Each structure stands twice: as structure tokens, then as C-alpha cells.
Amino acid sequence: MNGLRIGITIGLHRADETLWNNGIKQNAVFLAEALRHCPQVASAALVNTTAVPVTSALPWDLSRYPTMSFDTAKDAVDVLIELGGQIDGAQTDYLKQRGVRLVSYCCGFEYVHAMESVLFRRPLWGEHLFVNQRYDDLWVIPQVANISQSYFEVLRRQTARVVPFVWSPMFFDERVAALPHAGEYQPRPGAKRLTVMEPNLNIVKFCLYPALIAELAYRERPGSIAMLQVTNADTIARESLEFITLMNQLDIVKEHKAVFLGRRDTPTFLAEQTDIVISHQLENPLNYFYLEVSWQGFPLVHNAPLCSDLGYYYRGNHAEDGARRVIEIIDTHDARASTYRERQRALIDRYLPDNEHLVGTYAALLDELMARPIR
Known about the structure:
Layout lengths: L3 E7 L13 H13 L4 E8 L18 E3 H4 L5 E4 L6 H10 L2 E6 L3 H10 L17 E4 L1 H15 L3 E3 L7 H7 L15 E5 L11 H13 L4 E6 L3 H6 L1 H7 L3 H4 L3 E3 L5 H8 L2 E3 L9 H8 L4 E3 L9 E2 L5 H14 L4 H12 L7 H16 L4
Parallel strand pairs: 1-2, 1-4, 2-3, 4-5, 5-6, 6-7, 8-9, 8-11, 9-10, 11-12, 12-13
Helix pairs in contact: 7-13
Pfam families: DUF2827
Organism: Paraburkholderia bryophila
InterPro entries: DUF2827
């Protein structure tokens, strides 16, 4: 078969592992879809680097996205992109002897994870850290470049390049297909339900600033806000005295208009419980959640500069700016909800796997990669 055979690594922990516990496996599938559009690519498969067997229990179409073990893939690829599962030194040696190009696709906030591991004594790798220094290229998605690119480059002794972020609604569309109106935003009369869905796992995406934005909007227009819902927050709302004390300073909490909930299914919670989404990030200026919310037409109040043209953008950590956007949504959004959704989808086209510019960029990266001598 003519053309490049590409493998993209994942690290399965279960044979039926969900796509929704993190974005890594989705990222691998989206990248595979984009690379399949490149003219020099014959195939793009997923490669599992763990001992978990690959079966039909996996939640993606195995005929469209073939998935295999490393042992099967090691003689069947020309390029291996290490994305969600790491290979070791011996596996690297084998690939290099075959002339395979090895790319590290960096899509995680690894500097943040390392920092938290050290400062907060959260074991990450212990004494068994393997830093592969034989990559032929490092590809870094834009949202992690600012904080992690130099971290990758120094440890891996290789210059990185920033590559396009890829997203597709393919999995999200499957989950909303059975919902009324396919889970898209529907104007609703009356006071608005504000939703915050930050993971609250670290400082990168935390619910405090969105709560402050909701508070300022509530102080100005209490009759226009039905409630504030904060998901992924039930544990800290019970166990963190500091969080409890802070929240009890807010009128929206004192007047029993705020609830702190556990994990919720994003598409369903948006469709059934949400009118406005409020978000905040530090060093995470583009992510799947923003695209999912915007694709469905929900008004998104956010401070992510890499997608400032999406939703309702506010600057930095300016809660007053964010609150003004909430009030703007309350006053004007429903009258143009349909055209808003159409515009959001047109803007998101730049991230889709078949976007002409995105595919062209990856095709050029592959040409450059194959022209380099193997490390």
C-alpha cells in the first residue's frame, strides 16, 4: 500500500474504557481523522501501549479507527505518534532499527502536573521516570505551548513546534442524538440558570472566578437569575472549610440560589438544566468543553484568548467584565439564538479534521518529518 502508515498511541486501562474520563483518547481519534485527510497518508490507526486487550467493547468504530496492540503495530507503521501512551527504550530501539519516525504529540499540561506532584506530594512517576530523547519531532498543541513547551524541549533535547488543535463533534453528536432538539440551546422565558462545570482538579480550571462572576451578575439583576449550579464541587463544598467560608460571603449563596453538585453528564446537563455557562481558565486557553458548549449554541462566558471570538469573552481575571457579559446574554441572547449557533459552528470549522488549512498544515509537518534524518 502506497503512502504513510501512521500509528497514534493510547493507553487503555480497561477494555471498555470510556472516552469521557479525559480528552486524550478523543484527541487521538480526532488526530487520526485529520491525518487520514492528508494526501500522503495511507492509514492512521490507534496503538494501545498497555497490556489491556483490544476488543469490540471499545467505544469507537474499529472499522473506521483500527486499534491494535504495540506488538501488532510495531511492524506495520512508518510513523508512530506518541500521544496517549508511552513506549519504552527497547520499543524505541526496535522502531528506530526499522526506520520508523517517532513523534511526541504534547497535548497535556505536564508542567502543571509535575509542579503539583512536587509541591503537593502527589506521586506521579516516582523513581521510574523515562524521558525519551530520541523523538524525531515534538508537536505541541497551542493551549499547552505557553506553559509546557520549554519544559518538553529541555527534558527531551528537541525543539518543539506548535501544531493545530483538532476537534470534532462526532462523539458529542452521538450522545445528544436522543435528546430533544439534539441537545441544542433552546430559548426559555424567565430567570436564567447559570452553570459552572469546571473540573476543580487543579488551578488550571477552577470554579471560584465563575462563582464570583455569577455573584456580581446576581447583585445587579437578582430577579433575572434563577440559580447558580456548580458541578464537580460537591466534595469541596463539604470538605474544604476555606471553600465553604468563601462561598458563604456571596449573596447568591446566602440567599439559597446556589447548589454545589457532583459530576454531571455534560450534554444532558446543558440541555436540561442550563441557560448560561460561565467558565474560567489559567493557562488552558482552548479546550473541548468550550467547543462542545459553543457547538450546541449555549451562551458561553469565558476568558480563553485562543478562542476569544467564540461565545462571550471577558479579559483575564476581570470578574466585572464577565458579569457584564452575563447581563448582556440575559438581555439579548435569546432573540438571536439561532444565528448565534450558526456563527459558532462556522467559527469552530477551523478545528475540524477536514478543514483545508488544518489538513494542509499536518501534511506539511509530515513532509518535513520524513525529510529529517532519523535520530
